[in-house]
Amino acid sequence: MKLFQVFITALKLGCTSFGGPIAHLSYFHDEYVTRKKWISAHAYADLVALCQFLPGPASSQVGMAIGLSRAGILGAIVSWIGFTLPSALILILFGLGLSAIDVTSHKNWLHGLKVVSVAVVAQAILGMGKKLCPDKERITIAIITSVILLFFSSTLLQISVLVVSGIFGVYFLKSTEELPHDPIHKGKKSVGFLFLILFFVFLIVLPLLRTISNLMEIQYFDSFYRAGALVFGGGHVVLPLLQAEVVPTGWVSNDLFMAGYGISNAIPGPLFAFSSFLGAVSSASPNGWVGAILCLVAAFLPSFFLVVGALPFWEQMRTNKLIRKAMLGINASVVGILLAALYNPVWTSAVFSAKDFALVILGFLLLEFWKLPSWLVVIATVLVSFLIYT
User: Fold this and answer.
1) Where does the chain cross the membrane (predicted)?
2) 266: helix, coil or strand?
3) Please, are residues 69 and 184 in contact by the beta-carbon 8 Å criterion?
């Protein structure tokens, strides 16, 4: 029963989570923290912080971790399948030439979806801020983090700010109450260690197999596994790595690559699902479906290994008093990261007119004060978009 609940919830998020990885985290917060109450706000922020440090798609990793905490390793798998399945199917069908899903021709409702993601992110940041920044010190950490990242945006700087915020938390943050610790996953460290070993084994062995074998399946798996294992900063950062793997080799033309990238930004779900499109259209693939599934699994497999491997150790670290004080600072910094992302890229890519702003505040009203579920607000926004963007 728990597996089914995890799958259905992730599938709903996979069908409605527009707007990129930062927006995904906001949709997740609304569903998993506010509505389902499967995880507390502090534990969720801890997870987001951990996934900021790990290579791979942060939003998908958070989803896997919540599935893992809810229903074990199978829970992590079905959570990933549910969240990734809608976007992967759309991209594969699009890649195989089915014009019926050419959603790029419907610019009005696509723009409406971008606009509503602003309201979703804003509501999530407000909710997280209330819980994670209850005093002037932590509010200051959030604002300073946001200002730094708005002026100087880079993945390395983002990680550095998190580290500095953690150090500040250890030395300067004090709580008048018991420091919060809500368990995420009580997995065995031996199992976690095994999955961390698997992560490195695949990373080392696949290139060796590629040099002694001409099988296209091994070449695919190696290229997409490395791309998923070595990228920090989320979906958009993986694109140059994938382009370097598939375009110079002649597997995918640059025009096809850019067409797939365009539609990847117009649909819900993780941007890493773009790998399924590349597998489907690759000239070296004897079967588009097989190539798509192989590339999709290879791109996400490193994230699965890392989440299952790191979480038992992370859970133990979180029980340490100094680590928990550090997490107070890190969690406040996470709020600042999301606040900076609310402006760029969420706001800057969606709000261009008074109509756009009106739709944002209407969406925020429905989410924050009428407490409507985000998927319902998304559907309502699509309908309204047809009326106001004509």
Assistant:
1) 73-97, 109-129, 141-173, 193-212, 224-242, 289-314, 326-343, 372-389
2) coil
3) yes
**Residue whose token pair is 């890649």:** 95
Render 228-239 in DSSP notation, one character per residue. HHS--S-HHHHH
Q: What is the pLDDT of residue 66?
A: 95
- 385 CA to centre of own chain: 26
In terms of Cα–Cα distance, which of 14, 81, 56, 378 is closest to 241?
56
Report the alpha-carbon distance of residue 243 to residue 366 in Å, rounded: 40
Instruction: State how far the Cα of 143 lies from the Cα of 194, in Å rounded to an integer.
Output: 39
Long-range contact set of residues 315-321: C-beta below 8 Å, sequence gap at least 24: 315/183, 315/184, 315/185, 315/186, 315/187, 316/189, 318/46, 318/181, 318/184, 319/181, 321/179
Collapsing DSSP to helix, strand or coil, 315 comes out as helix
Cα separation, 263 vs 34, in Å, equals 30
Measure the CA–CA gap between 172 and 161, rounded to whole angstroms: 16
Compute the distance between CA of residue 19 and CA of residue 363 in angstroms, rounded to an integer.
Answer: 14
Where does 45-132 show beta strands of DSSP type E?
none
Please say whether the beta carbons of 254 and 247 come within 8 A: yes
The distance from CA 389 to its chain's CA centroid, rounded to whole angstroms, is 29
Residue 219 amino acid letter = Q
**The two structure tokens encoding residue 135:** 């005093």
Domain boundaries, the chain: 189-307
What is the reported pLDDT for 390?
A: 65
3-state secondary structure of 251: coil
CA distances from 185 to 67, 259, 297 (A): 10, 40, 24
Q: What integer pLDDT is reported at residue 110 of this predicted model?
A: 65
* Contact residues for 67 (Cβ-Cβ < 8 A; gap 6+): 6, 10, 75, 76, 77, 78, 79, 80
CA distance 349 to 338: 15
Do residues 270 and 21 make contact, with C-beta atoms less than 8 angstroms apart? yes
Contact 132, 138 (CB under 8 A): yes
Please name the helix (run of DSSP H) or strand (run of DSSP E) that holds residue 47, with its range, or none.
helix 41-53
What residues have CB less than 8 Å from 211, skipping those under 6 apart? none
pLDDT at 324: 79
Residues of the chain scoring pLDDT < 70: 98-110, 155, 175-183, 186, 232-240, 262, 284-286, 390
204: how many CB neighbours lie within 10 A of its CB?
Answer: 9
